[in-house]
Amino acid sequence: xxxxxxxxxxxxxxxxxxxxxxxxxxxxxxxxxxxxxxxxxxxxxxxxxxxxxxxxxxxxxxxxxxxxxxxxxxxxxxxxxxxxxxxxxxxxxxxxxxxxxxxxxxxxxxxxxxxxxxxxxxxxxxxxxxxxxxxxxxxxxxxxxxxxxxxxxxxxxxxxxxxxxxxxxxxxxxxxxxxxxxxxxxxxxxxxxxxxxxxxxxxxxxxxxxxxxxx
Length: 215
Fold this sequence. Notes:
Helix 2 (111-127) packs antiparallel against helix 5 and helix 3 (134-143) packs antiparallel against helix 4 (153-161). The protein has a domain at 108-186. Strands 3-4-9-10 form a four-stranded antiparallel sheet, with helices on one face. A two-stranded antiparallel ribbon has the order 1-2. It has helices at 31-75, 111-127, 134-143, 153-161, 171-184; strands at 15-17, 23-25, 88-91, 97-104, 108-109, 146-147, 150-151, 185-186, 191-199, 205-208. It contains five helices and ten strands, in the order E-E-H-E-E-E-H-H-E-E-H-H-E-E-E. It comes from Mucilaginibacter glaciei. InterPro entries: Phage_B3_Orf6.
């Protein structure tokens, strides 16, 4: 969160300012408005303090988990690869507490390679319209439909899973299109998620809500 500055207007300020910058004499401020000014300021002040503590706590969890994971690998003659991409789960001794670290790397597609893949697939079915299986035509048509200007990642990648079902005589061209999809895949960013769980009396783990993802 960027640095935020808040101010409270007080009785000592004989003139208060409203949202339009208009000056209002303190004597004209109602009791409710005075009380509201104090209460709202306190809520915002406390919220900023809590947010700052939460940011520090998130960094503490991140650093501690990385250290523990590094020590775990070292004790098992392992090597760190990609800082544990994919996520890890750490438990205390009696496994009543667990901390999960998960890595999310959203996929984005390079539009130029996607266009090449679609053009190749369109050409296949233009040439093989009668012999092409209806199910694969439907899957391909659906895969390239956009929702709010974005492709559905799962639908596009599902084309690769169906490669083994494609008729042999068009498979080389289909594989070429899948190669374009492979080249289109781009993961420019990754985001780490941290969750702390405590096991309840019923034996089930309960997630302590911290909402780290927004920080």
